[in-house]
């Protein structure tokens, strides 16, 4: 196990009554907040009115900034920064999924930064101060509600890049699984793939003696898969929604990666697909992860046989380790098909002509991934396997 430092101050308020408790978690003396959200899902569900009511009854002044798109844009972040400065905002409340939370985090990071906020994503500038943010989560997927990361899309340069700082971890996250009952199936299952991927990026490691986190990862993956099948059967299953919501937060809270070297190649490759084609984050992962597995499994077959045995229950004494490893990958693909996620690039009309550009961008620092370091040529081969 490697040495680590872990800090996660996000207060998690979970359950059907969590929203009514929100006020107690605001920092003292908050006077004016920026209410940040997406298009219209929170208005359709009635959540917007409910939140306004709670804030007004607590004498908190509200400035609204809506319009966060999936794959959140830098231009809106800049508008948010301007509003926060002009209006003297002291807290940002993000109501939505990962895109809204990430947009709120980027605004929070940019408010006190004198230069162009994009420099925080492209240059090694240390973030020294950020506005506090709170979250009401409506889509379990990214884990951004307690993670230290934000991922923003620069529409001008076609780059999708991340920024990480413990200062960006939300102060609190309201997690009411009932708020996820309005999700269309494609968003629910894209979220499921993202959650699984956050576990797998940590699970596939060469770090040894990490038995506790190996077991936590395997248990998390089994729980996510089992509850995804329950939601396929009945999208209104509250208990399954609750399991998925908690899994999403835990998967990316940092706990599952403690003491382990993490990989993250599939995410970086997936971000290039989103930057160029606007494909939903979870869908990029369901196309790339299986191809990545098939390309690299031989580098550490034992890790993959363990994945097959303890996540997909593949036990067969007649089979070789390699056959068992491949069966696990096959079962993973079957699961993705069962939940109607794309597993081939052609399903999302990704063009062969762009493989080179995307591979070049995600390996601009020389390589991508840590479980196996991938060169540009490797990434092109992974794209080819996912065709
Ligand atoms: O805009 P509205 O109308 O709210 O609709 C949204 C949006 O269209 C809708 N939605 C959200 N909650 C709903 C709902 N519709 C009905 N009922 C509800 N309860 O869902 C759509 C997608 O929302 P989005 O926030 O884009 O999805 P997600 O949570 O999957 O976030 C994806 C973004 O997060 C980034 C991704 O790259 C992507 O940009 N990630 C952030 C991470 C982090 N900060 O730690 C880590 C992740 O790996 C990921 O990269
Ligand atoms: Zn993700």
From TrEMBL:
<feature type="domain" description="Alcohol dehydrogenase iron-type/glycerol dehydrogenase GldA">
    <location>
        <begin position="9"/>
        <end position="177"/>
    </location>
</feature>
<dbReference type="Pfam" id="PF00465">
    <property type="entry name" value="Fe-ADH"/>
</dbReference>
<dbReference type="InterPro" id="IPR056798">
    <property type="entry name" value="ADH_Fe_C"/>
</dbReference>
<dbReference type="Pfam" id="PF25137">
    <property type="entry name" value="ADH_Fe_C"/>
</dbReference>
<dbReference type="InterPro" id="IPR044731">
    <property type="entry name" value="BDH-like"/>
</dbReference>
<feature type="domain" description="Fe-containing alcohol dehydrogenase-like C-terminal">
    <location>
        <begin position="189"/>
        <end position="385"/>
    </location>
</feature>
<protein>
    <submittedName>
        <fullName>Iron-containing alcohol dehydrogenase</fullName>
    </submittedName>
</protein>
<dbReference type="InterPro" id="IPR018211">
    <property type="entry name" value="ADH_Fe_CS"/>
</dbReference>
<keyword id="KW-0560">Oxidoreductase</keyword>
<dbReference type="InterPro" id="IPR001670">
    <property type="entry name" value="ADH_Fe/GldA"/>
</dbReference>
